[in-house]
Amino acid sequence: MSNIAEQLIRATLSKFEADRQEALAVIELYLNHPVGVAEHPTVIAELAKATENLATAEDSMEALKRNFLVSEPESDEE
Fold first, then answer.
1. Is 51 within 8 Å of 27 (Cβ atoms)?
2. Which of 23, 41, 62, 66 could be a cystine partner for 53, CB 3.0 to 4.6 Å?
3. Looking at the whole model, is its pTM more than 0.85?
4. Cβ(57)–Cβ(16) under 8 Å?
């Protein structure tokens, strides 16, 4: 893989990691800081959306890693 391709993959992984962190922060906020939640009538919909965003980010990161990042062969030694 060329250097530019690797940079693009790593940049994309960073973007998905940021999306993942944002989703985790939103979920944490709704679950652990109920003061702001009480005024939010669509809390279930917002939690569902944040959960979907989290899953999408994690799935996307794994797909890129699995298909485009070269990993070291696993050793059979134990």
1. yes
2. 23
3. no
4. yes
